[in-house]
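Weekend entry, working from home. Most of the wet-lab plans are on hold until the incubator is repaired, so I used the time to fold the two sequences that have been sitting in the queue since the last round of cloning. Logging both here for the record. First:
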Amino acid sequence: EECVRGQVAMHLATPPAVLLTLVHQAVGRNEIYPYLAAIAEHPRAPLASLILLALVPFRDGWLVARRPDLAPEAAERIMEYGPDRCRADLARNATLGPSALHRLASDSSPLVRIAVARNPRAWQETLSALLTDADPAVRAASPLATPGDLVRLTDARSRAVTEQVAANLAAPPSLLERLARTWDSA
């Protein structure tokens, strides 16, 4: 029964091989079970199960990508084959190395590049490159953006850009006040 498998998945003494079997069973049935989230965070989850959970259309794949103890092999597989949201969550991982972040800064998804811009471990050269990104929302997320750049970016009247400007620590208080009273006060 699913409730029994769920208890096994959450138990800290569950052997790694059993956790992998549970993941294979769920993938084989093409079902998303609530206990998969427990396996994604389980301290004994084997690398193979983490990679599988991150790469299949698993709504909690982000749990794998944000693990502080994520193996480099799993990060590599997520960068190569992971869905956009999972790659974005990998780019948010505060334990990911600067070289991996630099690689993710050229990802095809703006969500991933925005997450790189917000990661405190990103190299200065990576952040500088994001200042020239084709997507204005990515430029607005960069902590190296000047207040003048952020003011100009808000003229785009794009919710995605406005959200990034509002979240940017470099945004001056006067701009934040103006944003709070504009067409998109949320």
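Second, folded right after the first finished:
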Amino acid sequence: MNQIKLLEKIWKSAGAVLLTLVLTFGGLFANLSTADAAGTPNMTVRTLASEVEDQSQGWTSSLNTQGGRTVKFYVEIHNTVVGTSAENVRVKANIPSNTSTSHSIPVTVWADNAGQASSGVTVNVVNPAAGGKISYIPGTTRVTWDSNGDHILDYNMTPAGNDDIVTSNGFRIGDQSGCNDFIIQVNFLAKITAVEP
């Protein structure tokens, strides 16, 4: 009889220890999961350019063009940390105002809670030999984005409604979740003006 009571006590004690372990480790994993979800977003950006009139070069990071042509820019913005949200994502393109045979155009993205990332393209004005100017065409910024990740585009070449992409504060897009499903695509146009002889 005493052995049965002893076995009951051992089982109850073992059950209590097991329950304590489950609760302890379950809470630990839940806390780790929460800590991971509250991580810091990481922004990346890719920039390409193409000619509107002659697309034989395709999308490239080094475009050869000439006076009178229109250049289309493609910017891809990605928060690579799944489970995070990049707050107030912004993008800025630095279009030079000088005359040159080679224009370097850096594009920078950032968020309130994430550092900057940059990429860029080079636009070479090969005709005329003296080069030319490149100028943003107002009203051409467009956004394509599945903001909630449901595989239905919430924005599909939607006009930005402003020209902030070329201002110092940049174009504010919104909050971006981390994952490939939430990649933001921005397009805009610029015109090449040849140097007068």
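Plan for Monday: verify the second prediction. Helices lie at 2-37.
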